[in-house]
Amino acid sequence: MRSGDREIAHRTVTRRWRADGVRHERLTVEDDRMDALLFLPPSGAARKAPVLLFGGSEGGRSFDGEAALLASRGHPALSLCYFACAGRPKELRDIELEYFVRAARLLRSRSGAERDGLAVVGGSRGSEAAQLLAQYHPDLVRDAVALAPGTRTVFPGHDHVSWTRAGRPVRFETIPLDRVRGTVLAVAGDKDRLWLSSAAAESIAGRANASGTRHRALVYEGAGHGVSGVPYQAAGTYIHDPAADRWGDLGGPQAADARAKADSWPRILRLLDR
User: Fold this and answer.
1) Calpha distance 23→174 (Å, rounded)
2) φ, ψ for residue 198 (rounded to 5)?
């Protein structure tokens, strides 16, 4: 702060992704049969539910920052790459669900939370895998967070599938969620230009889990495909699709996305913290 030519106040704010004592470990396909970053809370910290995170059609590891922040809050967290990384398929095609199951079991084992159900967080196309994991493996996965979600695994004009289970294609016009043990929380913006994630989120919220509890949705007016994630940081309104080598418009102005993130992130944390 300045008054004329004289500085009268100065402050520096540093945003940290990891709290002191958070440990992280790089996992590779060659050594660990998966490409991932594992984050563990500080020694002695109260442990919360483990969280497995993965992104969508952009490939690679999209949620390293979120995983580090969750570990800082007591959640053992694994940021997983399932395609477009070393030792994994180059395209989002014929990805075996067993790969995610293996990652979830490693996370549960390394976190010391053998008896606790873990949560999965999947973004965009990865939201399909998150829902499938919660549906097919309720003994392992309790809750799922579906960010900018879809609810189907087959698309008109596509001659291949994205997901396989036990070596067979997974084909659903609507992913069933009736065997889910906990809650599927869907987060979407109504101006998403990549796909109709708001309609998908509302469809998810209209269904119930194995105990009859309704799943939930947060749909934000004016927000786009970049509706969710860590708030209070710069974010673009376009995304690169490596398979098609093109950029896609995410929809929604940055201000609307920012408001959605600021509101949805603490709600996501409350689900994970329970």
Assistant:
1) 39
2) -70, -40
Q: Which two tokens stand for residue 110?
A: 């390394």
Q: Which amino acid is it at 234? A: A
Residue type, position 135, single letter: Q
Determine contact, residues 123/62, Cβ cutoff 8 Å.
yes
Question: Which tokens hold the place of 31?
Answer: 């050594």
What are the angstrom distances between the C-alpha of 214 and each of 88, 119, 163, 173?
36, 17, 26, 20
| Separation between Cα atoms, residue 59 and residue 89, nearest integer Å | 10
Tell me, rounded to whole angstroms, the distance of Cα 70 from its chain centroid: 12
Distance of CA 213 to the CA centre of its chain: 22
Question: Rounded CA gap, 120 and 259, in Å?
Answer: 23
Q: How far apart are CA 165 and CA 20, in angstroms?
A: 40
How do the pLDDT tens digits run along the chain, 274 residues long?
556 677 777 777 777 778 889 999 999 999 999 999 999 999 888 889 999 999 999 999 999 999 999 999 999 999 999 999 999 999 999 999 999 999 999 999 998 765 668 999 999 999 999 999 999 999 999 999 999 999 999 877 677 899 999 999 999 999 999 999 999 999 999 999 888 999 999 999 999 999 999 999 999 999 999 887 788 876 655 555 555 455 556 777 888 999 999 999 999 999 999 8
C-alpha distances (whole Å) from 15 to each of 114, 169, 255 are 33, 43, 20
- Expressed in angstroms, the distance from the first to the final Cα of the chain is 42
Amino acid at 25: E
Across the strands, what pairs with 119? Answer: 51, 143
Amino acid making up residue 230: V
- In Å, what is the CA distance from 54 to each residue of 51, 74, 146, 259, 265? 10, 19, 10, 23, 16
